[in-house]
């Protein structure tokens, strides 16, 4: 796949953690198919089993990742070369990797990890997940093919502790997307708490190449909580 083949538009993140009711690879695959039927230009999938289940059903590009927590390290989105290899072997068209300034397992920096990935897998397409403008600029400089605002608001140094809502219901960092589009030449993907077409449209107006919506489409328990919170004043 060439980066030009990823059309501008909506990418749907189809993920479920171990404690969520939708935690089943076949369900994730169906979510991916539903996203394709609805007009999504891509899907973002976590884990080898879920990626394979999705690729059996869809023909749109898959952004693959593995959320793998290593003791002593915060970075958890495809944070090691072996995790990257596992995603790469599924045939996922793009591999998402944490390229924040936080150290990766084995003490590697983002620069060291990206260079190692590009050396071992020269044809790979890398999406660098960042939380700040500086991280995005560095991601491009080191060879990422796309940069995504995925981790804005999640790293310790970007969290909004004044907002009492669960993090999934907090506002997205559209300002970061706008800043990235002014500073990097690679496609900028807006991700992280984009709930609907209104927020997605604002991200596109800010210059985003793609917008990722996850919880607003594929996590019904959080969708329900959002609605319940919003209707409390009427009850």
Describe this structure in words.
This protein has helices spanning 25-38, 48-55, 81-88, 110-120, 133-142, 174-183, 197-205, 215-218, 220-231, and strands spanning 9-14, 42-46, 62-65, 94-98, 126-129, 146-148, 188-190, 210-213. It contains nine helices and eight strands. It starts with 8 loop residues before the first strand and ends with a helix. The model has no long low-confidence stretch (mean pLDDT 95). Helix content is 37%, strand content 14%. With 235 residues, it is α/β, with parallel strands linked by helices.
State the secondary-structure class. alpha/beta
What's the overall average pLDDT, rounded?
Answer: 95
Share in helix: 25-40%
- Number of helical segments with 4 or more residues: 9
Catalogue the unreliable spans: none
Query: Can you summarize the main beta sheet?
Result: 8 strands, parallel, barrel
Shape: globular
Strand order of the largest sheet: 1-2-3-4-5-6-7-8
**Rg, please?**
17 Å
Strand and helix order: EHEHEHEHEHEHEHEHH
Jot down its keywords.
14% strand; single chain; 235 residues; 37% helix; 9 helices; alpha/beta
Ordered list of secondary-structure elements with their pairings:
Elements: E1 9-14, H1 25-38, E2 42-46, H2 48-55, E3 62-65, H3 81-88, E4 94-98, H4 110-120, E5 126-129, H5 133-142, E6 146-148, H6 174-183, E7 188-190, H7 197-205, E8 210-213, H8 215-218, H9 220-231
Parallel strand pairs: 1-2, 1-8, 2-3, 3-4, 4-5, 5-6, 6-7, 7-8
Helix pairs in contact: 1-2
């Amino acid at each position: 796949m060439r980066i030009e083949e990823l059309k501008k538009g909506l990418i749907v993140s189809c993920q479920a953690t171990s404690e969520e009711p939708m935690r089943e690879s076949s369900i994730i695959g169906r979510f991916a198919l539903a996203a394709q039927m609805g007009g999504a230009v891509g899907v973002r999938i976590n884990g080898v089993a879920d990626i394979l289940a999705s690729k059996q059903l869809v023909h749109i590009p898959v952004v693959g990742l593995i959320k793998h927590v290593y003791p002593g390290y915060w970075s958890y989105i495809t944070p090691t070369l072996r995790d990257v290899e596992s995603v790469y072997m599924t045939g996922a068209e793009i591999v998402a990797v944490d390229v924040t300034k936080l150290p990766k397992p084995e003490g590697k920096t983002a620069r060291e990890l990206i260079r190692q990935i590009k050396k071992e897998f020269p044809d790979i397409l890398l999406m660098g997940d960042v939380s700040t403008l500086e991280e995005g600029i560095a991601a491009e400089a080191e060879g990422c093919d796309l940069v995504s605002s995925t981790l804005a608001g999640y790293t310790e140094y970007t969290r909004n502790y004044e907002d009492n809502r669960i993090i999934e219901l907090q506002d997205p960092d559209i300002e970061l997307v706008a800043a990235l589009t002014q500073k990097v030449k690679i496609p900028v993907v807006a991700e992280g708490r984009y709930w609907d077409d209104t927020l997605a449209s604002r991200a596109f107006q800010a210059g985003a190449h793609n917008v990722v919506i996850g919880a607003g489409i594929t996590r019904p328990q959080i969708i329900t909580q959002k609605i319940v919170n919003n209707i409390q004043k009427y009850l």
